[in-house]
Amino acid sequence: MPRIALGVAYDGSAWNGWQTQPHGRTVQDTLEAALAQFADRPVATICAGRTDTGVHAAMQVVHLDTDAQRRDESWVRGVNALLPPSIAVRWARVVQDDFHARFSAASRTYVYLLINDRVRSPLWAGRAGWCFQPLDIEAMRQAAACLIGEHDFSSFRSSQCQARHPVRVMHRLDIATQGDLIVVTLRANAFLHHMVRNLMGALLQVGQGRKPAAWMAELLAARDRTQGAPTFMPDGLYLAAIEYPERFALGELDGTRLILPSVS
């Protein structure tokens, strides 16, 4: 059967994460129900990266195998007609049989949006994290520098993480500001469960002056989650981009401009 890749975006506020659950209130359950109705047969999907409750995606990639014959644009328009407003298929392509949305991915990029203002903004509710204390951005950048490269990220790993090992390669960790909005961009070969939110919690400890910038390296070396900061809120977290080897000819799957026009 042909293998089809889909680019999917969703507002995670109303959903209990990506992965299917018995109650059906997940992005995967809702997408597969729409796909089954459109293809007139059951459809199973595999995603590039599972997202938790309240986490968004500007560029989730999934693959499916089906003998349903449809044009690429029909997979987009037809499935979207059956989806709620908070989920949308952005593109569809026939891919090679050995393409795997998860295991073929070379890297994932997450973006965390954080409002740093003394008063919360209802316009960003569910779309960005919030910190009312003033933040030392330069100290946060200094703390983040030690995270680049290959490390054991056990200090930032959820106790419920099912990954076989905690070693990951962090390619990029940038912290930019746009007025009261702080944009944290992280790219790695893969991420552990709650890794980005735990990193955000630690960065905020430094930004608020509760810990020195050098503490981040000590925490990383400790490989002990109990020494870390509390897991930060999911509201501002977006799966933003997936990178695949050139042989799959998928191009640049970058959804950061769906989050903010100038984020990249």
Order of helices and strands: EHEEHEEEHEEEHHEEH
Could you tell me how far the N terminus lies from the C terminus, measured between alpha carbons in angstroms?
36 Å
CATH homolog superfamily of the largest domain: Pseudouridine synthase I, catalytic domain, C-terminal subdomain
Into which percentage range does the β-strand content fall? 25-35%
How many domains? Answer: 2
Radius of gyration: 19 Å
Task: Report the helical percentage.
Answer: 10-25%
Helix/strand/pairing class, anyone? alpha+beta
Q: Provide the CATH top-level class of the largest domain.
A: Alpha Beta
Keywords: Isomerase, tRNA processing
Protein name: tRNA pseudouridine synthase A
Family: Belongs to the tRNA pseudouridine synthase TruA family.
Function: Formation of pseudouridine at positions 38, 39 and 40 in the anticodon stem and loop of transfer RNAs.
Describe the structure.
By secondary structure, this protein is an alpha+beta fold. The chain has 2 domains: 3-104, Pseudouridine synthase I, catalytic domain, N-terminal subdomain (Alpha-Beta Plaits, 2-Layer Sandwich), CATH 3.30.70.580; 107-238, Pseudouridine synthase I, catalytic domain, C-terminal subdomain (Alpha-Beta Plaits), CATH 3.30.70. The protein contains 6 helices and 11 strands. The protein has helices spanning 27-39, 72-80, 137-145, 195-207, 215-222, 256-259, and strands at residues 3-10, 46-47, 56-65, 87-95, 107-116, 129-131, 149-152, 167-178, 181-188, 237-243, 253-254. Strands 1, 2, 3, 4, 5, 6, 7, 8, 9, 10 and 11 form an 11-stranded mixed beta sheet that branches. Strand 8 (167-178) and strand 9 form a beta hairpin. Helix 1 crosses helix 2 and helix 3 packs across helix 4. The longest helix has 13 residues, at 27-39. The chain starts with a strand and ends in a 5-residue tail after the last helix.
